[in-house]
Amino acid sequence: MLHTLSVKQMSEKLHAGEISSVELTQHYLDRITQFDPELNAYVTVTPELALQMARDADERLKNGTAGLLTGIPIAHKDIFCTDGVKTTCSSKMLDNFIAPYDAHVVTLLKKAGMPILGKTNMDEFAMGSSSESSYYGPTKNPWDLNAVPGGSSGGAAAVIAANLAPMATGTDTGGSIRQPASFCGITGIKPTYGTVSRFGIIAYASSFDQAGPMTRSAEASAWLLNAMSEFDQRDSTCLEMERPDFASELDNSLEGLKVGVPSEYFGEGLEPEVEKIVKDAIAEIEKLGATIVPVSLPNKDLAVPAYYVLAPAEASSNLSRYDGVRFGYRCENPKDLEDLYRRSRAEGFGAEVKRRIMVGAYALSAGYYDAYYLKAQRLRRMVRDDFTQAFEQCDVIMGPVAPTPAFNIGEKTDDPTSMYLADLYTIPVNLGGFPGMSVPAGFANGRPVGLHIVGPYFSEAKLLNIAHQFQQVTDWHKQTPAQYQ
Amino acid sequence: MSWEVVIGLEIHAQLTTKSKIFSGASIAYGAAPNSQACAVDLGMPGMLPVVNQAVIAKGIALGLALNAELGKKQVFDRKNYFYPDLPKGYQTTQMDYPIVGKGYLDIEVDGKTKRIGVTRAHLEEDAGKSNHGIVKGMTGIDLNRAGTPLLEIVSEPDLSSAQEAVAYARKMHELVTFLGICDGNMQEGSFRVDSNVSVRRPGEPLGTRAELKNINSFRFIEKAIEFEIERQIDLIESGGKVIQETRLYDSETNTTRSMRTKEEANDYRYFPCPDLLPVIVTDEVIDAVRATMPELPDAKRARYISEMGLSEYDAGVLTSSRAMAQYFEALNKHTGGKDAKVCANWITSDLAGALNKAGLEIAQSPISEAMLATLIARIQDNTLSGKIAKQVFEAMWNGEGTADEIIAAKGLKQITDSGAIEALVDQVLAANPAQIEAYKAGQEKMLGYFVGQIMKLSGGQANPGQVNALLKQKLQA
Amino acid sequence: MSIGKSEVASISRLAMIAVADHEVEQVAAKLSKVVDLFAQMQAVDTEGVEPMAHPHAVAQRLRLDEITEGDQHQKLQAIAPAVAMDLYLVPQVIE
Which residue, A14, A26, A380, B284, is the most exposed by fewest CB within 10 angstroms? Predict the structure, then answer.
């Protein structure tokens, strides 16, 4: 079965001419037709585009211009603008938006020769941790159709877990790659802020948003990260520096690795089964030659409130452009200009997006700016400095990605703050702009649990090395729900 | 009891870049609607700004010219509000860390110099334009202008009359056009002046101000402010109160009227733009800008007077624009730099007069600096008399060729051959015996009569000096 | 509740999002919960801590002043809700 091959095996077989990209792509398109109706992981499937790109890839594979990933299909989160393809951000606001340009990531992965299977479902405008806020309905967790896949990149995590794509792109503003990766039992990495260009990625919170790969293995993530990160002058925050080969350290030994374990990450609220899985995984890494160092992140509890001031503040401004004038949803028969704005936005945005826009506008408004926005920015620095100090004593920090495995659909929709508080382990990493990843580490009541690895700036190759070594001695990342095997 | 007038100006100068402040779209004026609004300018999803290098250099140049503190660290902020000509729902501007800090500009009113404080100048993006009445009941939006770089220059409320306000605005106009950072075209909106006007009794706190907007000539700015001062004084003296509002000037009735807008106190929710990083300006950059800056009008004027011996009036005219000064300096160079006064005279009288009559700018002059220099040279080498030179100037203006071509074609070369001049003198003396008698009897003015007759006979081409000398010699014989 | 009806009205106006009368109470309740979360921040002493806007202390990169974008209005307006004579249309704005 083609979909049981690892990305490395696919690449080898494509290059050896044993399989064609058209064959591989068609196989995934068939699986999407068969399984996506129950999972709702894709917003748009693009079979014609995929097959055309697969034919082009086969041509390159024949004429010797193919790279490692040429011919391997990919699913893009529906936040990446894709020229000529509907790009919705899972919002009614953009239900009619055919992007007239490619995101830089899409450009790069087109250049790499990766056929686009379609666009994956997500929380509307990436605001959420369960993919339930999508205008197109929730995505289901392939491990348990009653559970959420996490979010906001829930569709991307689900398509990898259910083998509806071998590789996927995601974005992570407060945990949106790592938490769904944990919930769906796949590997995902959020790189250092500024590594991947944000050009053409629909903005949620500009100083946090960062794109990254979502795959089964750390090795595949390293390959995809290599292909999707390149300096881009169109994004002022994209760092102008040489990107290393993120796969170059995969085979390094973990001998001498110093793993920081913050006591604050194993306290109240962490489900005991999750705690056990994470501790077992850390023990496994210790066996590979690492030593454990206790570290402290004293301001961890401040990260969530600070983030839920800053990200909505940026979002409230970033989303002002959706006004029904130049693109996107426009209400029927506006009676005047203000009516056009107020109704187009009220009807085009879902409840959570509206809530964050309003919270953000409030946090920036006269009289609250200092108490909320500036205060949160100061806390942001304190949280970042905690990590910087911890990294003086250790190479990486390990802990849980989320306090629980995937929760049930509908369980947290009534109380937004309960969902916010569940982001407590991932958000601090975004505040600092550090790289972080989730690696499959076990199951609690049949639902996957990930191990969170966080490193200093530009330590992606090290994180991927640790994850890869862990995956040499474990097979959590290879497990697939029975019906999608 | 007397009144004190307090005026502060906010000037928006569009910068003369090729592309926009945050995108690579053109800023050329007058293009077809939305043909210069790219995805970044339209605020389309996922689009991001990148700062244009040229706007930083131009802003720093103004800062240097105003002797101002320079923004070595600048931060772009977002000013959030909804309006159809503002595609992103926010204007990117500089709030707390502008490119230019405190500086000043000296103006002259009634022969006295007054120093006007400049509070700050900051970079920001212009908005688009609204067109009414194209489709019934709808407003059409053209976003070509959206993202055009602006420098907003804010003065201290140091101006105390309409005359001073206009002197300041003119001086700032002269400065930005001299620096070449703004084309100064007020009709096209490249240089827009908003005036904050208030009145108070001496010693009392500042009165409530009204803002006068969108006035596109200096003359009307002066009239609008004058009217507004009168209006406010009349209002207060008749027991009324000035309200803070924006008022529009109507040049037909020479009055201002309140702009009908819902003036709710706006809450712009400024915060640093997360898509942009702080702009850091190094001393090297500042030095590089300084090195390419032209000599400024005040310095030029002083040099023209002290080094070249020009009158204050001539120096003023010659520095009224950078193009004018460039023309003068080029002409002076072409003529060997020895006769600045002669060059100045030609420009301020004949050339300025002809340009004015034809409605042309000096840059459009049909007579180049080199052409005018040749004409001056022909006077100095006695080829032309001053009078004939005016004739040649006219011919050059009409496109008949260079001075030498015209002299040759029209045979205008001055007669300097003493034999030929002697023949002319003899001819005239022979024809006027009665006048010779009169002269000899003491009527010295007859000398002028003879010169006139001789010049007439020569078609104006005889060298007047030689004619005079020979005539005296013959009459005394 | 930290957010009442009148706050919802003013926030709705700032955000240009209509809130129907029957939704006001629920919106106020949920916004209040979020704002209450912020209250935790006030307990922390942040005296002397510089606000952090970006992860990296990097300066803005500057673009060369070049025209790189041509006329794309046909492509870009193909997805616009209302256009006439190449202008984007909105209900009449009175000036």
Answer: B284
The Cα diameter of chain C in Å comes to 58
How far apart CA A276 and CA A273 sit, in angstroms, is: 5
Choose between B215 and A282: higher pLDDT.
A282
The pLDDT of residue B203 is above 70: yes
pLDDT band at B430 (very low <50, low <70, confident <90, very high): confident
Q: Which of C16, C86, C87 sits opposite B82 (nearest CB)?
A: C16
Mean of the pLDDT values across residues C2-29? 95
Mean pLDDT of B289-301: 93
State percent of chain A over pLDDT 70.
100
- Name beta bridge partners: B140: B131, C89
Beta strands at A291-295 and A258-262: parallel, antiparallel or unpaired: parallel
Of residues A311, A315, B85, the one with CA closest to residue C15: A315
Q: What is the mean pLDDT of chain B?
A: 92
Supply the CATH number for residue A442's domain: 3.90.1300.10
In angstroms, the Cα distances linking B402 to B290, B347, B395 are 39, 17, 9
Residue among B42, B44, B52 minimizing CB distance to C65? B52
Q: Which residues of C touch B36 (CB under 8 A)?
A: 71
The model's pLDDT over A291-313, given as tens digits with 9 standing for 90+, comes to: 999 999 999 889 999 999 999 99
Q: Is the pLDDT of residue B263 over 60?
A: no
Residue A154 · residue A186 · CB < 8 Å: no
Task: Quote the distance between the C-alpha of residue B2 and its chain's center.
Answer: 35
Residue to mutate among C16, C61, C64, with most A CBs inside 10 A, is: C16
Beta carbons within 10 angstroms of residue A320's beta carbon? 24
Provide the token pair at A183: 């919930």
State the residue range of the domain holding A55.
2-257+394-484
Q: Which of B131, B138, B272 minimises the CB distance to C91?
A: B138
Tell me whether residues A99 and B45 touch, CB distance under 8 A. Answer: yes
Nearest residue on chain A to B88, judged by CA atoms?
A: A321
Q: Tell how strand B255-258 and strand B149-155 pair up.
A: unpaired
| pLDDT digits 0-9 by tens, B383-416 | 887 888 898 999 999 999 898 888 888 877 877 7
Residue of chain C minimizing CA distance to A429 = C55
Count of structural domains, chain A: 1
Domain residue spans of chain C: 5-42
Closest CA to A92 of A106, A78, A111: A78
Separation in Å, CA of C21 to nearest CA in chain A? 13
| Residues of A taking part in catalysis | 77, 152, 176
Residue A339 lies in a domain: no
Give the SS3 label for residue B447: helix
Q: What count of Cα atoms within 13 Å lies in the side-chain half-sphere of residue B267?
A: 16
CA A337 – CA A404 distance, rounded (Å): 46
Q: Determine the Cα–Cα distance for residues A85 and A407; give it in Å rounded to an integer.
A: 32
Residues of A in contact with C60 (CB under 8 A): 236
Which whole number is the average pLDDT over A146-154? 97
Q: What pLDDT does residue B259 have?
A: 79
Contact A365 B269 (CB under 8 A): yes
Q: What is the mean pLDDT of residues C32-40?
A: 93
Given a cut of 70, whether residue C80 has pLDDT beyond it is: yes
Shortest alpha-carbon distance between residue A322 and chain B (Å)? 8
Contacts of B90 in chain A (CB under 8 A): 317, 320
Please give the pLDDT value at position B412. Answer: 78
- Each residue's pLDDT tens digit, A211-243: 999 999 999 999 999 999 999 999 999 999 999
Which chain B residues in 323-382 lie under 8 Å from chain A, judged by CB atoms?
none
d(CA A187, CA A39): 19
> CA A334 to CA A337: how far, in whole Å?
7
CATH architecture group of domain B418-476: Orthogonal Bundle (1.10)
- Using the Cβ of C81 and the Cβ atoms of chain B, whether some distance falls under 8 Å is answered with no
